[in-house]
Amino acid sequence: GQEPLQSPQDLQVHVVNTNFTLGWSHPGEEPNLSFSAEFKGPESRGAEWQQLPGCHNVPGTACDFSKAIREFYDPHYLRVRAQRAGQLSPWSKVLEMVPFLEAQIGPPALELQSTNGDIKIKISPPEANQARKMWIDDVSFKYNLVFWENSTNSQLWSKTVFPMDTIDGLSPDTSYCFKVQASLPAEGKEGLFSPVTCATTTHKVKDLLCPTNLRVLGLDMEFQLLWDHQYPQPVTYNVQYLTGYFKKLHEDYSVRWLGVPGCASVTSRSCNVSSVITTTGFYYLRVQARGEGNKSCLSREVRVEPLRTNELGPPGVKLDLSDTLLHIQISPPGGPKGDFMSDNYVLSYRILYWKNSSNAEEDPKVKETKQTVATLTELTPQTLYCVKVQAISEFYNKSSAYSQEQCTHTPAEKTFSLLILATFMVALLAVLLMALPLGFVLYQAYSKIKYVFFPSCQPPLNIEGFGGEFCTSPYLAAPEEPVENCSVIESMITQEGTQIPLKDSQHSKQSSRDSGNYSNDDTTLGSKSSAETLGKELI
Fold first, then answer.
1. Using an 8 Å Cβ cutoff, are 8 and 26 in contact?
2. Counting beta carbons within 10 angstroms of the beta carbon of residue 370, is it exposed (0 to 12), middle (13 to 18) or buried (19 or more)?
3. Phi, then psi, of 233 in degrees rounded to 5
4. Whole-prediction pTM
């Protein structure tokens, strides 16, 4: 019997642009083997595997399945098995892949043109004229051109170029070879190089009418273009500019050049081009010279990156003195364009300050700050201090000139010790003035409460103690003097139908401190006894 077929191994996917190739290996080298692949994509339903187009019953260990992939950002699953005369191997391990992550950038197309000692290049994007594209935005491509003299042991040069660019500075009548590579820095992808193409330079013809040595000077976002010329006859100049974005496009940008306002038909060799450099992008400038007989010549281009070309001017400085504190207010360089400068540069400031005396000028001290307000402390009283400030941009490695020095005189020293002592004494006196009346009121309140609730003498415990001195208080009610209470009894005695009135009998009120107070009950009993005695006598 035949041995069972083994599964394919080492599945790999090779993707260039939208071209997909599936490869694998198989341990057996038996004849009449074929392979079939299946896949599951984002359009597959559930666990349903589908036959992979272009990879069914293939005799080799690779197949092209480009037509099967429609979605480039979703995961796809692939598997392969071997077959022979109706015998099938188990499926291989499943390979997962996301097309965009696996894809490589294909080689761009490169065209060369030799003109006046230079080589003009034209680059077409990797997927030019294709309906299906892996790379949607052609403007995002960055092109790396590698070139060398077509000779043995020649040196390689590398340069970042635009789709349409000019390579100058080459030796005349020399063959050069070129290849170009596209990359997407944001995606971290580098593409494949184009095939090598060669061209031969011509002899360069020098035209004295053409302006040379173009350069741009910038200070606080004010830009001046300067150039040289060697033409002996009178010449007028027209300055033109191009927004750098157009150079990224894969098209002819010659019609995009525009004239700089105020720089048309000038006779001087400089012109202010600030009016057209209004953003933080990049620009190209060139000068067209026009001589007698309407003859003209265009200069080479000069690139302007505003934030890199611009130089920082000195910042504005204002001093404000408060006792022995010196406040420094800093304005960003640029004056009216200071807001633009502070918005586009991360600026820090270096402050130099020193004592400026008639005897000797000491070495400056340094203070650095990222704020527009700084304070100098621990200054000597009654001393002349001078200050100057420099603006710094670390990111662009730029520093301004120092501002014009400004000086101010610190005031004389105040007698702070006497002032503190006087303040302490006044505060102490105020506390004493407030404490004395409050203490007096509290003392009086304490005395009254003690006198009322805790007297120095005690009242008698029994009646024998009343011979002594009474405790009196002006805040308590005085005790009443004890008195005897007597009552008058009127009675009528009837004898044999005759009423006999009795005379009023009155018991005089009598006060006796010796015998104490009589109760009302005793008095009533006494009255009853007297009435009974009187009745007996009458009988």
1. yes
2. exposed
3. -90, 165
4. 0.67
CATH number of 109-201, picked from 2.40.50.140, 3.90.79.10, 2.60.40.10, 2.40.30.10: 2.60.40.10
Q: CA dihedral in degrees (245, 248, 249, 253; nearest 10)?
A: 70
> Beta 118-124 vs 164-167: how paired, if at all?
antiparallel
Between CA 177 and CA 200 the distance in angstroms is: 9
Q: Which CATH superfamily is domain 9-102 in?
A: Immunoglobulins (2.60.40.10)
Q: What secondary structure letter does DSSP report for 448?
A: H
Q: What is the pLDDT of residues 44-98, one digit of tens each?
A: 666 689 999 999 999 989 999 999 998 999 999 999 999 988 789 999 999 999 9
Please compute Rg for the chain using Cα positions. Answer: 59
Q: What are the tens digits of pLDDT across the range 427-481?
A: 888 888 888 888 888 888 878 787 777 766 655 555 555 454 455 555 445 455 5
CATH homologous superfamily of 212-310: Immunoglobulins (2.60.40.10)
Query: Are 214 and 287 spatial neighbours (Cβ–Cβ below 8 Å)?
Result: yes
Using CA atoms, how far residue 211 sits from 166, 220, 379, in Å, is: 18, 26, 57
Those residues with Cβ within 8 angstroms of residue 321's Cβ, 6 or more apart along the chain or in another chain = 327, 408, 410, 411
Q: d(Cα 21, Cα 104) in Å, to the nearest integer?
A: 12
| Domain boundary assignment for the chain | 9-102, 109-201, 212-310, 312-410
Cβ-based neighbour number of residue 382 at 10 Å: 10
Residue 225 β-bridge partners: 216, 271
> What confidence tens digit (pLDDT) does each residue in 153-180 have?
889 999 999 999 999 999 999 999 999 9
Domain 312-410 has CATH 3.40.50.1970: no
9-102 and 109-201, same CATH topology: yes
